[in-house]
Design goal:
- By secondary structure, the chain is of the alpha+beta class.
- The chain has one domain (4-130).
- Helix content is 48%, strand content 13%.
- The protein has 6 helices and 4 strands, in the order E-H-E-H-H-E-E-H-H-H.
- The protein has helices spanning 13-25, 40-45, 48-51, 70-81, 83-93, 97-115; strands at residues 4-8, 32-36, 58-61, 67-69.
- A 4-stranded mixed beta sheet has the order 2-1-3-4.
- Helix 4 (70-81) runs antiparallel to helix 5.
- The longest helix has 19 residues, at 97-115.
- The chain is globular, with a radius of gyration of 14 Å.
- The protein starts with a strand and ends in a 20-residue tail after the last helix.
Length: 135
């Protein structure tokens, strides 16, 4: 399967941490590519009619074109990483999505206060990994 596109808020410290987390667990780049929300790659991957309804934190465009948001996107990322992360994603998926999304929204509303904001839209990563980012 081709890498899926993980979209993230390029100015959020938590989102940057999440990108670095995924990069560390997908060193070959088989699972994900990355693009900041609002960039050219984002606009090419997400139809205009859906852009306004997206949360400003994280989303995934799957290899079959499905757009996943909030906790469903987070669970999908964990499952796609495989190993123990796949198990953890399956465990979290048992929780009803309304509960998962409530927790996701609680954290998302406070994430910039708790984790700070960053000026760069792409996390600082080694040069070899920069090719995995679409801007």
């Amino acid at each position: 399967m081709p890498p899926e596109l993980l979209l993230y808020d390029g100015h959020c410290g938590l989102c940057h941490g999440a990108v670095r987390f995924v990069l560390a667990r997908d060193p070959s780049g088989e699972a994900f590519r990355f693009a900041p929300l609002g960039g050219v790659a984002f606009e090419a991957a997400v139809p205009e009619a859906l852009r306004e309804s997206l949360p400003d934190s994280m989303a995934v465009v799957t290899d079959d074109g499905e757009l996943l948001v909030k906790s469903t996107a987070a669970v999908h990322v964990l499952r796609r990483l495989g190993g123990g992360w796949k198990w953890l994603g399956g465990l979290i998926a048992v929780v009803p999505s309304v509960v998962r999304d409530s927790i996701y929204d609680f954290i998302a509303r406070r994430r910039k206060r708790w984790f700070g904001e960053v000026d760069e839209s792409c996390p600082i990563v080694p040069a070899a990994l920069r090719t995995r980012f679409d801007v």
